Amino acid sequence: MTDRFVPTAKGSHLAARKSTDTEPEVRLRKAVHSLGLRFRLHRQVIPRCTPDFVFPAHRVAVFVDGCFWHGCPVHGRTPRTGPNAEVWSRKIQTNRDRDLRNAQDLRSAGWRVFRAWECDIRRDVMDIAIRIERLVRDSD
User: Fold this and answer.
1) Lowest mean pLDDT: which of 16-20, 80-84, 93-97, 133-137?
2) How far apart are CA 25 and CA 63, in angstroms?
3) What is the DSSP code (8-state) at residue 11?
4) N- to C-terminal Cα distance for the chain?
5) Which helix (H) or strand (E) holds 112?
6) Count of other CB atoms within 10 angstroms of residue 88
7) Distance between CA atoms of residues 42 and 54, nearest Å
8) Every domain of the chain and the residues it spans
9) CATH topology for 28-38+63-140?
10) I want to staple 67 with a disulfide (CB 3.0 to 4.6 A). Which of 20, 58, 72, 83 is the partner?
11) Using CB atoms within 10 A of its CB, is residue 120 exposed (0-12), middle (13-18) or buried (19+)?
12) Reading across the β-sheet that carries 53-55, which strands appear in turn?
């Protein structure tokens, strides 16, 4: 069986990918909400940085990172073959660089940053929610 590669520039499937309200993000928000915490969604807190949800009064920003798109060290698959392998590697590295830059900028602005991997949310969403709760409550 031969592999079928779709040119990245022409992949309509890429345009259909959700960037907000993904399944792991919604699961985590529901778990955090069940602990009595209230938050704001997709609020830009500094220029060009919009966390998945924030606790403005506590200055806590939460990001939910997909294993593929953000290059999870455990589950992030690195495309090694095909005509688009280099394009994908650059894309994922660009995402990682942006994540690091955003976290640094947020910390410089007095925010605390919490990043959750998709795989960790799938494994134990309440554990992640409790960690967020501790971070928020410790800021009081």
Assistant:
1) 16-20
2) 9
3) -
4) 59
5) strand 112-117
6) 16
7) 8
8) 28-38+63-140
9) Endonuclease; Chain A (3.40.960)
10) 72
11) buried
12) 40-41, 53-55, 60-65, 112-117
